[in-house]
Amino acid sequence: MGFIDNAKRTLWEVVGEPALTKAGLYEPADRTYGRTDVPFSPMEKRLHDNPDVTVWFGKAMLDNGKDWSWYQVWEDKKAMRKTGRNADMIFVHGTGVHSGTLASHSRRYLDAGFRLIVPDLISHGYSTGTHVYQRHLDAYTEGLHAVLHDVAKRDDEADGVERRRKVERRTTFMLGLSFGGLVAHMYALHYPNSLREEAKGEYEVPIDGIIGVGPIIEYSRANVRIPWFLQQMIWYGDTYLGLGRVEVIVPHKKCLDKDPKVYKTLVTEDKRSHQGAFRVGHLLCIHFAAEMIQQRAHEIRHPTLVQQGGQDRVACHEAAINFIRDVSATDKKMTIYPVCQHVIYRKAKTEEEDLAGRVACVEDNVEWMCER
Fold it and tell me: Which residue ranges does the record assign to the Serine aminopeptidase S33 domain (predicted)?
């Protein structure tokens, strides 16, 4: 595609489409912008082909009646019978990637008897919306809420039950990686009635524990830096010019991991992941959500586990420590894994490092959920 074609496409995406859509003069024919045509990742395909794993797919419609959050559900019924576990784990992936990133780590959760609910966040993967663009984080939590209720409705229909109350529903945990960790903890603020012990919200789907793995409570100020002039351009561009969709920068690209192949594997080699830079609106979405989660951490009463790499150069350790201190839940814990960087869920080059990092982290959060 030539320069002129790229310029036309960008102008339409950034200015033309938002203006016409806001005026009610245009609706995209494909609300996923072509992402539905991208095939599953090889690891997803291997999981889907596993005869021991039951897989099904769903779309949870949002309140506007136009957009949806796509999700898949994985379960090993033999493991569920063996463990006697009747519990769900909903996975919240990081920014720019998709639900399939859990596939290579799913076996331990399936063996523990958990049913895995694995959605693509709104504006990611097979869910609707301009790729990785939401100005406000509540769009992401709304999508998760819709998915949980869609699965709950299907469960009730399958069991011939009209509508279960919160206290009667399956034990459910929410686990988020990186940006997904921020989204998961924000879910507790946006849906406080999801606490099982809360008297309000009789028909809410309960969340019995939230796990943030390398959550972006705040970016590391020492390593993730956006130049002052660019910060001003981002603010004014969004506030006064409506340029929220403009791609500008990946603030943590160079400090995601010491091995550049990690970013390449997660993003550039995965066609379902976002290939461009972070958009103006998405950067502001993260910024204001991080501010809010720190200011309102004391409102969170859900059982909380935070896991962070000791060598994480993307997420701020101090902010995470202050966050877990401020959370009002009596059941809360933070664990730091000295050998890990930001992408804890990656296979290390040596067995020793892998056992001390990724494997230990997964084992710890599985144990934490099983204890509850």
Answer: 87-344
pLDDT (tens digit, 9 = 90+) per residue, 68-78?
999 999 999 99
CA distances to 38, 174, 294, 353, 356 from 143, in Å = 21, 13, 22, 36, 34
Per-residue confidence (pLDDT) for residue 221, from 0 to 100: 87
Helix (DSSP H) and strand (DSSP E) numbers for the chain: 13, 10
For the chain, what's the residue count?
372
Are 210 and 302 within 8 A, CB to CB? yes
Domain ranges of the chain: 31-370
* Region for residue 328 given its phi and psi (left: phi exceeds 0; alpha: psi -120 to 50; beta: otherwise): alpha
Which residues neighbour 159 within 8 Å (Cβ) at sequence distance 6 or greater? none
Q: How far is CA 187 from CA 106, 152, 329, in A?
A: 23, 17, 15
- What does the pLDDT read at residue 258? 62
Least Cα distance to 285 among 98, 139, 128, 145 occurs for 139
Which residues of the chain have a pLDDT value below 50?
none
pTM of the entire predicted model = 0.94
| Residue 287 backbone class (left: φ over 0; alpha: ψ -120 to 50; beta: rest) | alpha
Quote the DSSP letter at residue 269: T
238: its two tokens: 């969004």
- Return the CATH number of the domain spanning residue range 31-370: 3.40.50.1820
Burial code (b: 16+ CB inside 10 Å, e: under 16) for 301-310 equals: bbbbbbbbbe
Please, is 190 exposed, middle or buried when counting C-beta atoms within 10 Å of its C-beta (0-12, 13-18, 19+)? middle
pLDDT digits (tens, 9 = 90+) for 318-349: 999 999 999 999 999 999 999 898 888 877 77
